[in-house]
Write a structure and sequence with these properties.
This protein is mainly alpha-helical. The protein is built from five helices and no strands. It is elongated and about 90 Å long. The N and C termini lie far apart (71 Å).
Length: 158
């Protein structure tokens, strides 16, 4: 009985010791928090992109468009969201530790995704001629998305 207890304790200690050694070198990426923020920004940009597609779609059958006031309000809300996301991207970039230019491929990929999503919004806005009351609001959307592209291009040039 005593022998079994000693053997069990030795095996348990061996297992715990090996587990501790195995996990000792595994460290979470210091960029994970920043990457998560960029993923969140990308999700918001994707939602704005989808909303813009719905607004700017040209139906095959004549359908009355939404009232210009509602359309302007929607576009202004999108522009406001984009301005906030640009601030978030700038905050993430500012929070980068002082490391070599290529700190983490995953981080660079997340920045590229954000830039591509913002560029998609800019392209949509450029390829649509809105009615008069909406031109200024669509221009604000285009400008805010373009600012995000510019913010990312400072870190990762095209």
């Amino acid at each position: 009985m005593k022998t079994r207890t000693i053997v069990a304790l030795l095996l348990g200690g061996l297992v715990l010791g090996l587990t501790g050694l195995a996990l000792a070198g595994v460290e979470p990426s210091p960029f994970r928090r920043l990457i998560n923020k960029l993923d969140s920004v990308e999700n918001v940009l994707d939602a704005v992109d989808d909303q813009l597609k719905e607004i700017l779609v040209v139906p095959s059958e004549p359908v009355y468009p939404p009232a210009p006031c509602k359309l302007v309000n929607k576009l202004n809300a999108m522009a406001d969201k984009l301005v906030i996301q640009n601030v978030r991207v700038a905050d993430v970039i500012e929070a980068l530790p002082d490391v070599p230019p290529d700190p983490c491929q995953e981080f660079d990929d997340a920045l590229r995704k954000v830039r591509d999503e913002a560029q998609s919004i800019v392209d949509q806005a450029n390829n649509f001629t809105p009615p008069d009351p909406c031109r200024e609001a669509l221009g604000a959307v285009r400008s805010a998305a373009n600012d995000i592209v510019g913010t990312v291009n400072v870190v990762i040039p095209r």
